[in-house]
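If you are new to this repository, start here. Below is one unmodified record pulled from the training split, so you can see the exact layout before writing a loader.
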Amino acid sequence: MSEKTLLDTAHAAMMQNPEDVQLRMSFYSILADIEVFLLLEAEPKAEMIEPQIVEVEGERLVLGFDSAARLSAFTGGPAPYAALSGRIMAQMLATEGAGLALNLEVAPSSIMLPAEAMVWMCDTLKAAPQEAAPAAKRKGGLAALKSPDIPEVLLHALDAKLSRAAGLANVAYLVAKEEGGMMLAILGAKEPAQAPLAKAASEALVFSGLEDTSLDVAFFNDSEALRDQFARAGLRFDVPVPATPSLQTPAAPGRDPSAPPKLR
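And here is the target side for that same chain:
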């Protein structure tokens, strides 16, 4: 049996507590962030892919796996596939009205997700982040910030999101605002990385199921002085340093969030 994955753990918790909304949201949050390997009928061409589809009780399901090894275990050998992020996969399947047969017969996280689940997942991922003005520009500046009372589910969600943001920023701090709500202060993020980071923070909140919680996102240049001020009131999240980049290869289908691949 293949090594247990993060998705396996989230799936087991969800199945053991089917009424727990936060556990179900956590499973979908992880699914959105991981890479999903879709089994294809043939090698992909340009931005067109032809996934293998099974029909279960009239439901069209695309075969997907959370690792290439599990896909190979299902097929019994090498097979054509497309590796897509979970969020792009959800967008593609929602558009095409298809569901997902995930890790079928090869993992404890084997589950069939209908087309409605893909539509819901896609809609949830569209949640717009609210970006705050830098706190230093507000009346009272950073002095108006205080230590946050952080729900554990949000703490884990933010930690998971930022741990997968290698190289996009240097460090982040979660603080409470004097006027209410919380702010995630992200230091050292270049402008192109700011929208993805704000989106990731928004998704962490949405998938935590905390409908009454407010979370702003603000970006700052990195400095020891700012780190010291945020550290007095906030909880620190370290952002991993990226691994040494490998040689560039041509973009594969499904890498562009604005143009998910089409099914044939």
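Two things worth knowing about this chain: The radius of gyration is 20 Å. The helical segments are 6-16, 21-33, 68-75, 86-96, 115-125, 152-163, 191-207, 224-233.
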